[in-house]
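Chain and conformation:
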Amino acid sequence: MPTKEEVVDALRQVEDPELGMDIVDLGLMYDVELENGKVKVVHTLTSMGCPVGPMIQQQIDDVVRALPGVEDVEVELTWDPPWTPEKMSEDAKFILGFG
């Protein structure tokens, strides 16, 4: 079973194609829970109308499911708390001009 840090690192492969950055640096990944071979990823999107939401959710499932020891994946979309640019990493803020 992977560690939480290994799951978060794998999630860096999931990019928001509209912004060209990964969901971890964008602050879209809120939580990772691990229990008995099951991984739950709680995430959000930059907006409710995000057209790439289903694609991002599928990519989350794919990269986590590929980790050794993962038997099941749950991907939960939440709007609470709402995403804001303040949730981005300092690097993401700089690259996208939010610095």
Summary: The first strand starts at residue 15 and ends at 16. The chain has one domain: 4-84. The CA atoms of residues 1 and 69 lie 4 Å apart.
